[in-house]
Design brief:
The structure is a homotetramer. Chain A is of the alpha/beta class and about 325 residues long. Chain A is built from eleven helices and ten strands. In chain A, helix 1 (about 30-40) links the parallel strand 1 and strand 2. In chain A, helix 1 runs parallel beside helix 2, helix 4 crosses helix 5 (about 180-190) and helix 7 runs parallel beside helix 8 (about 245-260). The model of chain A has no long low-confidence stretch (mean pLDDT about 95).
Chain lengths: ~325, ~325, ~325, ~325
Amino acid sequence: MAKNYSFGAGIWMFGQFIDRYATDAYGPPVSTLEAIDRAGAVGDLMCLDINIPFSDPSITTTQVKEALKRNNLKAIAITPAIYSREFRSGSFTNPDPKIRKKTFELAKQAIEVAHELGAKYVKFWPGQDGYDYPFQVDHAQLWDLAVSGIRQVAEFSPKTQFAIEYKTKEPRVHISFSTAARTLLGIQEMGVNNVGIVMDFGHSLFAKETPADALQLIHKHGKLVSVEVNDNWREWDDDLAVGSIHVIETLEFLYALRQIKWKGPILLDQFPFREDTVGAALASIRSVRALDRLLDRIDLKALRAAHKNQDALAAQRLVQSVLLGSSE
Amino acid sequence: MAKNYSFGAGIWMFGQFIDRYATDAYGPPVSTLEAIDRAGAVGDLMCLDINIPFSDPSITTTQVKEALKRNNLKAIAITPAIYSREFRSGSFTNPDPKIRKKTFELAKQAIEVAHELGAKYVKFWPGQDGYDYPFQVDHAQLWDLAVSGIRQVAEFSPKTQFAIEYKTKEPRVHISFSTAARTLLGIQEMGVNNVGIVMDFGHSLFAKETPADALQLIHKHGKLVSVEVNDNWREWDDDLAVGSIHVIETLEFLYALRQIKWKGPILLDQFPFREDTVGAALASIRSVRALDRLLDRIDLKALRAAHKNQDALAAQRLVQSVLLGSSE
Amino acid sequence: MAKNYSFGAGIWMFGQFIDRYATDAYGPPVSTLEAIDRAGAVGDLMCLDINIPFSDPSITTTQVKEALKRNNLKAIAITPAIYSREFRSGSFTNPDPKIRKKTFELAKQAIEVAHELGAKYVKFWPGQDGYDYPFQVDHAQLWDLAVSGIRQVAEFSPKTQFAIEYKTKEPRVHISFSTAARTLLGIQEMGVNNVGIVMDFGHSLFAKETPADALQLIHKHGKLVSVEVNDNWREWDDDLAVGSIHVIETLEFLYALRQIKWKGPILLDQFPFREDTVGAALASIRSVRALDRLLDRIDLKALRAAHKNQDALAAQRLVQSVLLGSSE
Amino acid sequence: MAKNYSFGAGIWMFGQFIDRYATDAYGPPVSTLEAIDRAGAVGDLMCLDINIPFSDPSITTTQVKEALKRNNLKAIAITPAIYSREFRSGSFTNPDPKIRKKTFELAKQAIEVAHELGAKYVKFWPGQDGYDYPFQVDHAQLWDLAVSGIRQVAEFSPKTQFAIEYKTKEPRVHISFSTAARTLLGIQEMGVNNVGIVMDFGHSLFAKETPADALQLIHKHGKLVSVEVNDNWREWDDDLAVGSIHVIETLEFLYALRQIKWKGPILLDQFPFREDTVGAALASIRSVRALDRLLDRIDLKALRAAHKNQDALAAQRLVQSVLLGSSE
């Protein structure tokens, strides 16, 4: 059976997890190189989104390149960790110009590493950019910092493809690039053409979007750079295995990916705090493949007719006929 | 193939829908007798939960009985409309003793009609009992009214089975009987043994419960009287067709029903504002049956082992193997 | 003491309320003319947003004009009821071209009435435009209908100011124009310059926005046409009295209104289901005035310094010093 | 002016914060003894809720006692860290009996330390007890483990006062003791009389309760052991400074504390990730005191009359008259 998509993952899902309660972490430390080996152990991943700085200052890009090679992996993206301690009060939007400069410097490093590793894009996930309290910020100023900070990087390296991964909150209580529409507006305000969006399925659910709908909006504006998948309970970025909760909406999202002729890869973004990471990755790949195969069996002509009539029950019946089997 | 459950419905789903915007209603008026005929047209319903007062004061219980008979339907429950205009500021918890007395009188009528129609329980859905604003009520007083009002009815007719359908809000912004646990506490405080719970799957999702979990809690306390099903987006009581969104959680709920050996019936509670009502009812019945049949194919021994280990990925794989088919 | 703002209201808040449970309504019917008289009874309103069609086909625009005059009121906006029964499956996005045409015709009537009554804008609140179920619609098609439908009206009457009031849901389970950012994107796609936004404070809370932030975004894009206020519990459009819950965020919103030099009016949008409407309106006006006066006493220079540093505790202390009084 | 309450705090708010993104933590490590000194620096705290194990195995209870003494602090509670790495899949509900035994052992240590330090209660915050995925657990089994695990400890040391701090989620995606009502039911099932509840204001908001209402329910059942305060945006346990968002609901909660004649102390539970901890603690104490003083000025007789009538607007006016000042 044809495999429509190749898969990748964020390297963080193979690292050490920690949170504010299990401060001794959910497992032992994992170096960047070890994480790449773990990703390789999945056996079905083609590429990684890799964080810089690497886990240890002594690790070189050459070592990372070798680790990728021995695991048959490529770097698809470089994501600078603009959310660690020094950026705790913001990266691009930090009130301190020195930290904003450090953000820019780290972005430059990310561009270099991306170039060395042949990555397709540099991802910004400005999870500390925003605010916690009412009245904490002048919202117009904050938004200007968010927009101009990324514009500056994009103008510095006009041939690099950048992408913003939006998220409504966490760790910052309110994050500036919160939704697909708001991020599209921000990108327009930047006035550059090398900044797009990484759409994370779970962040879209969390932002109370319908992922299939957010996808078409981003695509329509020509800004879709990459796609990440996982699942959650809709009220937090739980980063669970794909299809574990929102089966129908994941299926609808995969249908939307077909509509825009997405050729992949699809990246996993999970935090299996209490599960085997490799097993959790395989579970997600299995779910995506199985759901995608269901689409082959849906009567798409009938579905398009149902869509033309916005006929919810007809569409549901078509979906259930392949998901639940015939009921007669 | 064995049909494990018989089905019933709330009569309101065959009536006229209205809301605060489409004040000319989503369709023409429907009398109680017409609604029974529509329910009969589904062809697969065995019983109805019937509201009193009937749509028109001239309709008699005898006529209702005849309408039920000609449609092969029974009355399983009588639900007094303690949420209409005169109860807009509360029924059992209304600050005005005259309205509380009217609530009691309407409850008495419900008992009589239930007796005449052979219904198994009288349902209270005190959707106007609660508060809208901070500081509006003395919460201890309000809770006392909620508890003592139903206790009074239960003591008045100790041989009648009563049931409270909890819901977190709507139409009241905060409803007193909001969750399974809180309602169980209230029933305990009543100190009577003829009041139980009607558990509505959608209300449970809306209350941020996991329905399968709420079910076991109610069952453990011996208070499960009836079960209603539908679906929603988890943030409002959308009353959509069963299985349209929460496929996995509906399946888990059906599994929980098997665990407690529920013999049915299962009642539909939908508001198909924009769909054909009979079609919407049939869609739900089809979903329940198809999902329930999937349970026949799950390796239950393996599932129990996964549960013993609380192994999320193993359990998910068992479920997906029947839902999505083999992925290898 | 200076009164910074004049006030208006949506005429609907003086009408008859109904919902899907209290189907006999929360009070007796109210005609358009009676509603205007009730609005006049508030004594502190200057203008109304008026729905068409009027409550009764026999009511003429001339009668409405007279009713406004005798109550010292003006029409600030005309809002066609594109959410009544015939539009239950959509107005601009209805799958049936005949209904889309009816939407256009009703919009044309709204333009005419706006002209006759001297209203400043025609408001579209397309509360039925969207979808209820996963897989119900082709999201790209739906969005195209939403955008092109309003574009068509805007191009038909280029001298009329139009405004979209966004809302995330209700009555439609998902509404196309859901958030400030998404609506701004839609307006851009229209390519016209006579469509803006009516920002409703409660809809912004409901959409999980921070209202002060949404305001600056709309203002920055030059699209703020009008402002409506109320309060809710953040998870539904409860339409409660201003300042009853979100005191701090209402204050921050009023601060943002000062920053953009909003000259008013401020419109009330409430549904006092269980309260006296005139009293509820007065409560809101009192809250806005009292909160706005507090701003006169905040040390704005110190607040701007706190904002420059994004210093949450400093800002909070400044706000609390006027709200709660000195604590030393 | 009379100070109605003394204040305490959870020692964790003076420790090192970390989360899953800023894995290098929001600041340097802080030992148990240093945290006590920081708490002492607030100057207005009387007691601490202290975690065991202490930060370093070499720290002795005697050293902790001395540190408390030199800072004029007492231990009010001991909270065993039953949510660290080894308990990541559950403490009382862990599927592995060896870990459940370790939980019991750690609870015994907590009892000993509580005895040595003269603490009033041992608190259980079983933040890892629950589930992440649908179908992961047998809900009846899980609940039994949750109830019986704490029962076992309570029966082991019948003279020790225990208290459960409920929370709806985090770190576990669903926590067993999630709401006030559910925890009360669980305590009843335990059949012991030395287990009560620590009510955290923020957890109550997060659980979609109205805190003043949850307080009366816990009090009515005689199970209120302690009270913790903070604030959040209602959708996560943000642990922000008191009164920063929910001014009205905090005031209502303080009113409810007066109604039940709570004599304190009131404990702070904050995570000032990006603020000065001592400053954040002082801000909260200031807010509680200022809000509590407002209660002295509210016309309580009129408020009780408003409550008797459930008159929202009258109650709101009484509250606003002291909060916002006279508006006439």
